[in-house]
Amino acid sequence: MPCYSRCQSDAACRRTLDRKRAGKNTVLKHYGRRMDAVPLTTRIIQNDNSIPLLLQTGEFNMTNQTGRNNRATMFLAATALVLLAANAQAFESMQMGEWEIQITGNVNGFLTNADCDARSAGPVSGGLACGSNGVDRDIANVRTGLLPSWFGFHGQQEVDGLTTEIMIGFQPGIDGGNQGDITGSPLDGGLGLNSENLRQVFVQFGSDWGKIKIGRDLGLFGSDAILSDMTLLGVGTVSDLTAGGGNTSLGRIGVGYVYADWKGQVQYSSPDWNGFSFNLALVDPWGLVNLSGLSLDAGSFAQQGDTYGIEGKAAYEWKGAEAEDFSGKVWAGFIGQALDSSVFGSEDATGFDIGAKVAVAGFEFVAYYYDGEGIGTTDFLFDAVDSSGNTRDSDGGYLQATYALPGAGTKFGLSWGESNLDLGPADSVASTLVQTNESIVFGVYHPLTESLSLVFEYTGTEATAHNGNKAEESSIAIGAILFY
Amino acid sequence: MAVSAMTRTEKRKPWWQWWLIAAADCAIAMAWGVPVHARSDAIIWEGNDQSVLLAPQDDAAAPPNDHPATVTPQEIESMLARLSFRHADQQADTAPAAVFNKEQVEILGEALAAGLTRAKPSQDVTFSIIGAHRLSPGAVARRNRLTAGRVFFRQGKLNIIFGEVQSPYRKKNLYGRIDEDFYPREYGSRAPPEEQEAVLIANPNVSLQLGAAGTRVDWVVFDPAVAGTAPLSRPADATAGDDRGSGPAAPDNSPPAPATAAPAAVATSEEAARQREATAPEASNSDSIEQRLKYLKSLREKDLISEEAYRQKVNEILESL
Where are the domains of chain B? Predict the structure, then answer.
């Protein structure tokens, strides 16, 4: 404590203080209870479904009574786990018998204010700038950012040369709902529940030959794009979709990359060969979503879902001897899934992406590009087929540059990106279907400690329809994110 | 309105742009393939987020090391097994704890010995290793702690500068990936650190480096030619089957022993000792009576040893005159 006042301007000192505090652990009582959560959480997961994140609204929670009860139970269990862990000051890697265990995650919250400007009389169907619905308004929220708050339980053990892991995580939002339906979101106020997701549940095992993962985890296609996105620690685009708060904002989802989303999968990960590695996954079939109102969804397309999706990625990563040395990563990936319909016949959704991230002396640059047929925009298979069941083409990408001040660690970032969606053969050239979602983001991310960062972001988003309709969103976000 | 659709089509990237981007990526990869390859050559041992690596000296102005050097794994294990420390904010009479456990000592002994034989004069051998340490004697739960530092051989002595001594080991969860350390790992520096979290304890085989600003409690020096590889004793709380928790020899608070008083090296280290003979200096001044007394005084002034222990050791030195 005597050192604390000095630490205000000294990152190394603050780090030392953090460590000292973290290091003063006491005897951890009842630690074994943490393991009790595993079957409970697994049971809850069985009631979960594969509705994409953007559609997992409070309305769904309200109507799914069983799921709500289970989630409430899980909240209690998780809270107990947090209290136990906090009591022991033990948010660090522990060894329980042969298991290495860690509880990890974050909590974040932001004040956001978005100015939604409908620049034309009509809507931009599928546009991500708020105001795409044709309504001018301002939106104020206290909300979670792009990165949902996170409670992750990770266990790992090695037996006879085989490393086995489990990861179970759920993602609550801080959104208190919109009592009275202020901004058009479903009723989910003080008597309701915060929104939450269950995104990560998997077992993984492997050895020198690589690893096999079975369970629900981040998809491969577009994963490095979102993991490299600076708005992951901020908010990015708010949009009409998440105007009511919800669990997360959009960041650069749909304005630079297709959301990788959280998918049931069986994934093989190769070993790291001097920086080279690849991943290949069979994923749970994904369903078509009609976000714009001008597309077919899984039901109207009579989608059969009879084949697995497939995703893959190859990457090459290098690191310098020191943190400030030249380091980086290049990657290329693909996605594919058959879209079989008993009414419209068969189509294929295929896409590829490439990206590069390099860093040196505090600077970091990211360049990313994707292209696909039938993969849609914003999320996989969103608005991917027209009203006659024909696939639409799409592409997009983003550029990003950040610089972290030496010593203080404050990071300044600027990024630009867009996602484009072509018309399908059955679409009218005067369609209000979104043609381009584009945004520019300026962000400042200041670490108060190694765990806690303050965030300021300005995001300007523009949605343009094929018929020329436009909507613009200007949003400011101020908040904090704490990793534990 | 057909123009609109046509315009959209024309915006799509032609095929050659894709290849251009791909080629740019490949060029970056190839351009930096050399340092990546060099890094793979520098890896002595890696496993489960731990490593022993060859790395450039942290200070470009530092005198070159006497590398490559031959030090046997047994000699290194003998040194590491006896190392103990206490946290900087603990009282001086707090019982010191072993820096490494048995498994770590065995791993580092082999890997550091191999690294020293491959290192160049401008290189150090850095290590980062994680060990499970009991929350308290007899506790079931153990916490994983990170210890990291750099090792080099110079003027007949093995030097270890610690950057981390049983620091909390935590990984940051970023969108479900738990790859990133909460704290950048520190491998120690020849320049004195601003803050000291752990205080290493000298013993008859290991001395603390004397720096311009006083004794470096993060830098230990070991003379393998004179320290020997005596069998290790077990700590009182070691239990069968506790492979990670069983510590090395009980910590010893004694100040560094004079070189002439140390036992001879055992047979396994004789060859290594012969190879070092050419470069080993004569008995260092740091072993003189005067320096030992100054060293004891500095320890006492830093409140690292009690008044009683200080007087006892001073008397022992004076009686040996």
Answer: 45-279
Q: How far apart are CA B305 and CA B91, in angstroms?
A: 10
d(CA A422, CA A75): 43
Backbone angles phi, psi at A18, to 5 degrees: -55, -45
Q: Report the distance separating Cα A444 and Cα A230, nearest Å.
A: 10
Domain positions in chain A: 101-483
- What ipTM was assigned to the predicted interfaces of this complex? 0.78
Do the Cβ atoms of B4 and A147 come within 8 Å?
no
> Do B29 and A330 count as a contact with CB atoms less than 8 A apart?
yes
Q: Does B28 touch chain A (CB under 8 A)?
A: yes
Q: State residue A112's pLDDT score.
A: 93
> A33-47, A107-121, B61-75, B289-303 — which is least confidently predicted?
A33-47
Q: With CB atoms and an 8 Å threshold, state whether B168 touches A19.
A: yes
Rounded to the nearest angstrom, the minimum Cα separation between B41 and chain A is 10
A260: left (phi over 0), alpha (psi -120 to 50) or beta: alpha
Place of tokens 């590695």: A277
CA atoms of A456 and A450, how far apart (whole Å): 18
Chain B residues with CB-CB distance to A19 below 8 A: 167-168, 183, 197
> In this structure, are residues A112 and A475 in contact, taking their beta carbons and an 8 Å threshold?
yes
Please report the residues numbered 194 through 223 in chain B whose beta carbons come closer than 8 angstroms to any beta carbon of chain A: 194-195, 197
Query: Span A101-483: which CATH code?
Result: 2.40.160.10
CB contact under 8 A, A19 and B177: no
User: B89 φ, ψ to 5°?
Assistant: -90, 10
Angle between helices B73-81 and B102-118 (to 10 degrees): 140
Cα within 13 Å of Cα(B195), Cβ side: 22
Whole-angstrom Cα distance, residue B197 to residue B219? Answer: 13
CA–CA separation, B82 vs A94, rounded Å? 25
CA distance B317 to chain A (A): 37
